[in-house]
Structure formats: structure tokens, C-alpha cells
Amino acid sequence: MGKESNWKSQLAEIIGQHNEMHAYRNKVISHRTRDARSQALFRMFRQLRDLGYQVAPANIGERHVAALMQCWTNQQSLTAQARQQPFSAAYIQQQLSILRVFAGWIGKPGLVQAGAAYVAEPALVTRLSAAQRDHTWDGQGIAAEELVRRVEALDRNVGLQLRLMMAFGMRRKEAVMFRPHVAEVPAYALPDGHPSAQRFVSFLRIVRGTKGGRLRYTAVRNDIQRQALDEARQVARQRFHHVGRPELTLKQSLDLFSNVVRTAGISRAGLGVTAHGLRHEFAVDLYFEITHVRAPVRGGDPTVDPVVRLDAYRQVAEQLGHHRPAISRAYLGTAGRTGGGDHDA
Questions:
Q1: What pLDDT, in 10s, does the model give residues 138-189?
Q2: I need a labelling partner for 128 at 20 to 30 A (CA). Which of 64, 134, 180, 317 fits?
Q3: What is the number of other CB atoms lying within 10 angstroms of the CB of residue 234?
């Protein structure tokens, strides 16, 4: 017990001395960033203990960083809990960045190397800004409607949540917390100057469950969306009800979602697709509707008018809840890429 509390107090002391400041600039960082750093560092040193390293925070060395990297890339499993899939490259790079900052705090600025130095396959730690392959269910040969119905047979609420993700590009948490009776607003109710207010009749106001609580408006454009919205209103029968099960907490609802979709085989290890792939499905469908050609990641025509393409990227980003059009590249790919049938993942 003494050793366990000792490393925690040592780590807390180091964090308390340094965590307020930006890693590279002379400015104070937000409380959210401080909390994220602190939680990540405590998680890393717990992982090291699970891996058999009883290291004091100030004594962390190269072999400990390498062990963490083996764990994150699934080359070495935790004794308490093995992962079936590696963490994403984005997550790994974020953890390395935090660990690199920590190393500077303890006087070891060169301790943490670039991610590629720890792995035989650089792709495991390479964060790509543009989609290199089609992540949609359709792109993997999965009939989305059929699979959603299969999930609905297991659990109606979870099936509906998947349907909302497919129809409106929602994230899992957004779909679970969605309140259909109060979400739809007419176009004239959008903020003045909203770039899409003149294109569509109505929008969904999505804010509950979004990243950072950022409000966005997603257009109601077609009958498939309307049917999903009508079904959501049937499930959430009262005005302020959401489409998650009312007797469950948010955490329980999110866990239920994960368990049900896994049971249906929706995973990289199972059918080769994830629920998040439905956001990609939404993105490529919207892009096609705007440009009348397939998205670049699907081998679309690279000669599309650049002005039309840029507007399509802006609309896709906007309706997915992102503020920068360039983010759409992560869903659509980039012009000039002719992916065609490249659906190997």
C-alpha cells in the first residue's frame, strides 16, 4: 500500500508544479487540458505497473516508454485486460505528446522519440489527415439497412441510434442523447448568415452529446432522414425524452450501445466496420448529393469544379459538426486520389 500511494503522491507533486503552463509557449492552459494531461499520466503509470514496472515517476526511462508503446500498439497486452485492436494513431500520438511534455518536466527532454521509432509498422502510429480508404459500410460490402435491422431485432433503441447516425451523421453519444421532439427547427430559425439556411427547409439542432458542447445544424434533406426522425419520435414518446432507454444512465446507455453492436458483429475484428463508419456514410452521401460525383476516396472524378468541391467539403464539415472544411478530407479523401475499389479494411 505504501509503494502504491508513494508513486501517486510523487506524480501528483510533479503535475502540481508544472501542469498549469503550455508545453512550448509562455501561457497558462485551460483546466480541461490540465485535467486531460493529469488523467493520462496517472493512466500511463498504472499501465506500467500492470506491465510489471514498479517505476517512480521521476525515474521513467526509455524501456518504460517502449513498453507503453508496445501496449498501445497491441504488441504487448496488459495483464489485467488485453485489447483486441491497437489504439488509433491519433490516440497514440496524443499520449506520446503528453509523455514528451512530462519528460521535459523531469529533466529528460529527449526521452520520448517519434512514434515510428518504437514500431516495425509506421502505419500503426501515422495519423493521416485525409482518408486513404473508404470507411463506409457500403464500401466494405455491408448492406447498411439490413445490418441496422438486425441490430433493431436485438435492441430497438440501439438500432434506432444507428439509424440516426446513418441519416444525420451523428456520433454515438449524440444519437443516444437525441431528443427528437425538440430538435427540428425551420430554416428561418437558424442564426443570421448561416451558410446553409437558404438551401433546406428544416434542420436538426444538435448540441447534446457533441464534442465540447458545440451546437450544429444538420439539414433534413430526404425521406430516409424523415423516416428516421419519425421513428425516433415514436420511441421517445414525450416532448423532452431522448432515444436512449429512460431507465438507464448515460454511461449505461453508451455501454449498452457498445455491447449490442459488438453482438451484431459491428467491429473491425468482426464485420470489418465500426458504428463510426456511418458518419463516413453520411459524409460521402452528402458529397454526392452536392457534386453529383462520388467522393475522392471512392474514386470520384478529380476534375470537379474546385469551387463546387470546396463548397461540398465545407457543407460536409459543417453538418458533421466541424468548423474547418479541411476536416472533410478525413471522410472524403482528397482530389486526385482514385481509390475506386480500394476497400481492403
A1: 988 999 999 999 999 999 999 999 999 999 999 999 999 999 999 999 999 9
A2: 64
A3: 11
SS (H, E, C) 32-89: HHHHHHHHHHHHHHHHHHHCCCCCCHHHCCHHHHHHHHHHHCCCCCCCCCCCCCCCCH
Q: Taking the model in full, what pTM does it have?
A: 0.63
The label of the residue with cell 476516396 reads 297
Determine how β-strand 184-186 pairs with β-strand 216-220. unpaired
195: Cβ contacts below 8 Å, ≥ 6 apart: 314, 315, 318
Distance CA 106, CA 250 (A): 39
